Amino acid sequence: MDLNINGRRALVTGASTGIGAGVAIALAREGVLLALSAQSMEALSKTATAIEAEGFEKPTLIPASLTDAADTIRLSQEATNALGHIDILANCAGGSRPTPLDADEAFWAEAFDLNFHAPRRLTHALLPTMQSNQWGRIINISGSMEPRSLNAAIAAKGALHLWSKGVSCDVAKDGVTINCVAPGRINSPQILEKLYPDEASRQNFIEGNIPTGAFGDPEDLACMVAFLCSPQAHYITGTVIPVNGGMHYFAH
Question: S-S: 14 plus which of 89, 92, 171, 209, CB 3.0-4.6 Å?
Answer without folding.
Answer: 92
